[in-house]
């Protein structure tokens, strides 16, 4: 179990997971515990994005995918949704110089057309301003849902088949992967390690196809309390596992 009290662990620098994905859960509960409004938890959660981005980049992670907003999060009260939709704008205004100094490239995947214009613009600006960076990719899932992603991919593939440009007999897993929102990540599209904070042991429509062989780590720590030491402990746990991808040895 990885808690705030976790002690720093030695890592094998040659076996750092290339792609780490995180479901950043527990901001509301973190705030409630402190008698603060939920949005105070989201604000602290965004501060922690900066801390963990820097830590992951320095550990040698190549892609850090963060679940910022799910297609189900629209069901929350309007005031909370409005606040969340302002976070990419705040993030862009405050963290951009640091991300550029850290050589981090921002990518955003999700149904961006359904976002308020200012939110979409902030996401596009963050991608454009860091497009030349060659270090870690900070890949935000924003208005993302894994089933929607698979439905969209299926539609595109079916359309190509119906148009006669694709022979259904040739469809294989690379065809499907090429139509997913993670296609821009190329060979690193599949997370090696998926972490969910805040004690919930489920996927909640985050990545589905891409996590076929991912190692899963669940921690009770709320996202605003998820420190670089907890990240290191999760990677140490990952390194202690024996990944076989369905084979034997
Ligand atoms: C959000 C902060 C982290 C905790 C989880 C929920 C709240 C960063 C972004 C973001 C997204 C796209 C982008 C730049 C920044 C963000 C939302 C919520 C909606 F290009 N954090 N964060 N977006 N939270």
Can you tell me about this structure?
- It is built from seven helices and six strands; from the N terminus they run βααβαβαβααββα.
- By secondary structure, the protein is an alpha/beta fold.
- It has a single domain, classed as Decaprenyl diphosphate synthase-like (Undecaprenyl pyrophosphate synthetase, 3-Layer(aba) Sandwich), CATH 3.40.1180.
- Strands 3-4-2-1-5-6 form a six-stranded parallel β-sheet, with helices on both faces.
- Strand 3, helix 4 and strand 4 (137-144) form a beta-alpha-beta unit.
- Helix 2 runs parallel beside helix 3 (78-101) and helix 3 (78-101) packs parallel to helix 4 (117-129).
- The protein is globular and about 60 Å long.
- 37% of the residues are buried.
- The model has no long low-confidence stretch (mean pLDDT 96).
- Bound molecules: ligand V07.
- Ligand V07 is lined by residues 24, 27, 42, 45-46, 49, 68-69, 84, 87-88, 91, 106, 108, 122-123, 126, 140, 142, 223.
Q: What is this structure's SSE topology?
A:
Blueprint: E1 19-23, H1 27-33, H2 38-59, E2 63-70, H3 78-101, E3 105-109, H4 117-129, E4 137-144, H5 146-162, H6 173-177, E5 193-196, E6 215-218, H7 228-240
Parallel strand pairs: 1-2, 1-5, 2-4, 3-4, 5-6
Helix pairs in contact: 1-2, 2-3, 3-4
The protein binds ligand V07.
């Amino acid at each position: 179990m990885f808690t705030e009290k976790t002690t720093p662990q030695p890592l094998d620098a040659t076996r750092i997971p290339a792609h780490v994905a995180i479901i950043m859960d527990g901001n509301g509960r973190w705030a409630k515990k402190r008698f603060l409004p939920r949005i105070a938890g989201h604000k602290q959660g965004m501060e922690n994005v900066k801390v963990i981005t820097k830590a992951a980049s320095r550990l040698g992670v190549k892609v850090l995918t963060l679940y910022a907003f799910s297609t189900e999060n629209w069901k929350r009260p309007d005031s909370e949704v409005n606040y969340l939709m302002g976070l990419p704008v705040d993030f862009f205004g405050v963290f951009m110089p640091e991300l550029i100094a850290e050589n981090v490239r921002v990518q955003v995947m999700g149904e961006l057309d359904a976002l308020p214009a200012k939110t979409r613009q902030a996401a596009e600006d963050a991608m454009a301003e860091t497009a030349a960076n060659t270090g870690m990719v900070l890949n935000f899932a924003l208005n993302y849902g894994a089933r929607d992603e698979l439905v969209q991919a299926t539609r595109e593939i079916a359309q190509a088949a119906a148009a006669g440009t694709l022979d259904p007999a040739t469809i294989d897993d690379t065809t499907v992967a090429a139509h997913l929102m993670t296609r821009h990540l190329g060979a690193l599209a599949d997370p090696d390690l998926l972490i969910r904070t805040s004690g919930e042991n489920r996927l909640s429509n985050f990545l589905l196809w891409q996590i076929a062989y991912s190692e899963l780590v669940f921690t009770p720590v709320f996202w605003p309390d998820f420190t670089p030491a907890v990240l290191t402990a999760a990677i140490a746990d990952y390194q202690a596992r024996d990944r076989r991808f369905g084979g034997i040895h």
